[in-house]
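B., you asked whether I could sanity-check this one before it goes into the benchmark set. Here's the sequence:
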Amino acid sequence: MKRWIARAAAVAATALLAAGFASGQQLIIKGEYGNKGGTLPPPGFYAGMIGAVSWADELVGPDKNAVEGPTLTQFVFGPVLQYVSNADVLGGHYSAMVVAPFANVRTDFPRLDVDDSTGAAFSQLFVSPLTLGWSISDPLPLAPGGADITASYGFYAPTGRYEPGALDNTALGMWTQELSFRLTSYFSRDRKWHGSASLFYDMNFKKDGLNWTTGDAFTYMWGLGRDYGVKGSLLSGWVGAAGYAQWQVTSTTGADAPAFVRANKTQINAVGPEVTALQGALTLRYFWQFGGKFTTRGHGLYVQFAMPLPL
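And here's what the prediction gave me:
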């Protein structure tokens, strides 16, 4: 019995320590794209808000064993501005986006015992200066209603509150460059049934004040759903399922990164329902995380609202 207790304590300590250095090191908001992820809105200026809340109550070690603990609540929210050009650029539309998020905590060491009551402060500015979107109306293999395709480049600037080792950081103190490719396929000629796949590759640079470069992340977000209501009416939208998977694909490097962080990579998965209303202006997604390795695990909510500006 004593040997079993000692072994359980060792597993718990390893998971707490390992997962405590892993999740939260990526800036991309997991679950921000779902159904119609590859579709740009019609040309115009748009303003809105995004918000994401996560409740993590498990730590998953490198061996995928999970340890329960207290709940760590993390949230991020902020205004969004987007422009979609009416001009033809390489056969598609040009778009640009800026997101200025605020967060309550973005810890270098996201343990479940972190005090998350430090208040919201500015986090890391996201800018996407180049997005191109194409809409294909002709039937395609497995997509009788055609498809929408979007490719973009963006970056996260090291703005916001950050100090190496602090537990109330709302930023991660590093530049991150992001490449993405997103696809919406329409499975019926009336385009009511659709599925989407959104791929992101995030390249992280060295943290300010530390010899520490977090490994790059590959994130896959997806959606599968159906439109409802009369097209063009205020009460129209879509419902379905959404999810994501994220893998750290390169090793963390640098003398200031602990050896077990450099030796392990994080991953996590999630799935849940999506409801979009008001002609696509309001989106809600709820996720339950599962699987995973070297990370925290729990559940979360993503909300987005955007409306065209009368310019």
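One thing to flag: The helical segments are 2-20, 259-263. Otherwise nothing jumped out at me.
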